[in-house]
Specification:
The structure is a homodimer of 264-residue chains.
Chain A: H1 18-45, H2 54-61, H3 65-77, E1 81-84, E2 88-91, E3 100-101, H4 108-114, E4 119-130, H5 133-139, E5 146-156, E6 159-169, H6 186-193, E7 198-208, H7 212-218, E8 226-235, E9 240-248, E10 255-260
Parallel strand pairs in A: 3-10
Antiparallel strand pairs in A: 1-2, 4-5, 5-6, 6-9, 7-8, 8-9
Helix pairs in contact in A: 1-3
């Protein structure tokens, strides 16, 4: 339903069915992951650090072993659990109750809600602009090409907390490039309007003083440092589909990351 | 050789042999991971995104399949590669050439070297201090207990770039609590003087203006935002062993993180 104009592939192709496969599995998979997170939180609160067996979990959650295993792998990647061959799967106790995990997928509406706020979002601006050289390089298209630019502000119980600007190349978009609903995450937008979902994002993490328009939007002084995350979102076929630059006021949303060293 | 006084275990025990197992495998494992990183970089530069099979890799690197598989899992966790069942292992092309990865283990000497600097380090201060409430809570011991505090400055080609303060509880240390060599990483110190290596660290990531002593040590104005990482280091038996607070001048060392969404 969306006409997609592919740029010439710069790389040897990955298996062609991958993107389709991802699209089919992503929803069920995310639901299972959310439910596993709840299980982990509950067990952790009870001081029980060992997860039930895969057989028990797949029965309890009503999902296949394959889906369950994918979700467990992903939680292990994020540092929430560790799997010890011959011993079972254990909760990383000190990762319990952590705030937003930098290595996790996260829509800001969800992250703010999980941080205990009432999350709202408004679209500040939505238009088509030419890409600057830096952004175009990340998207692997010529500078000056058009992109849909979406500027949003996410609020925590009414206070502006996160300023976000997405750029989607117009060449990847179809008929109506202005169809984003404010509450839709960047990932949902990609799945709905571009096609195969985001597979991974590379995010540069920097401490910055706010640019003037961000200070205004977040109602903070120009001297307050913010966390700036500049994401390049990549599909399974290594196609970059969007750049998202986010400024976070960490009074409302604090990130952590779990660094793991040993894998048994 | 080091007398270790365990605090009372707060949690149900993990398998008792785990820590020993980690200590034995960690060195070989880290070497394999470093060599795999080189392989990935070289293949990536040649535009080849598919890794050789496990059999070929384990022969080429001269390591067991089990060790190889652990190292591959860890690189997948960090977002460097992805393993697709039935298709093989692929390099995440857009993660190539990334700077320091926030989700990876990293000694600052290595991180600065990899960023192209000549890395040096000096110990600014080393002494025993009482723990404040916040730090004691992270280490799960009473406030006021003594800790070895080590303050260091890592320089990039002569310019101070990273300010680091470790706190190790004295109750976990043995005979000579002042034995840290400046070039020794926090992780090496734990392995040598406390015992089982660090299994994972929980790091809070914040943008901050520098405290006065950090601004002085890094020779920067009080208005320059820094990345502040506050780590709690955890052993395999869930014992917290150290807190490390680091301030990074990101002119010299820039962090990224790879956020992964789908696991096939």
């Amino acid at each position: 339903m969306v006409t997609r104009i592919h740029p010439e592939p710069a790389q040897p192709a990955l298996p062609a069915d991958l993107a389709a496969l991802s699209a089919i599995t992503s929803d069920a998979y995310r639901q299972v992951k959310d439910r596993l997170r709840e299980v982990i939180t509950r067990l952790g609160e009870e001081g029980r650090l060992r997860l039930p067996s895969e057989a028990e979990l797949s029965t309890a959650l009503g999902v296949s072993r394959a889906t369950l295993r994918s979700a467990l792998q992903s939680l292990q990647k994020e540092g929430r659990i560790r799997r010890l061959h011959g011993h079972g799967t254990f909760i990383n106790r000190h990762a319990l109750g952590l705030g937003a995990n930098l290595a996790e997928a996260g829509a800001f509406m969800d992250l703010l809600t999980e941080a205990g706020h009432q999350a709202t979002v408004s679209t500040a601006d939505q238009r088509v602009v030419p890409l600057d050289a830096d952004m175009a390089a990340s998207l692997e298209i010529p500078a000056g090409e058009q992109a849909l630019r979406i500027e949003r502000v996410f609020a925590a119980s009414g206070a502006p907390a996160v300023h976000s600007v997405d750029h989607f190349p117009v060449r990847l978009l179809g008929d109506d490039p202005r169809a984003l609903e404010a509450t839709q995450s960047t990932f949902e937008f990609v799945e709905r309007h571009i096609g195969p979902p985001v597979c991974y994002s590379v995010a540069e993490v920097r401490p910055v003083l706010p640019p003037a328009e961000v200070a205004t939007a977040l109602k903070i002084p120009a001297t307050q440092p913010l966390l700036r995350l500049r994401h390049t979102h990549i599909q399974a076929d290594e196609q970059p589909v969007a750049v998202t630059v986010v400024h976070v006021n960490d009074e409302y949303l604090r990130f952590s990351v779990i660094r793991t060293y040993l894998d048994e």
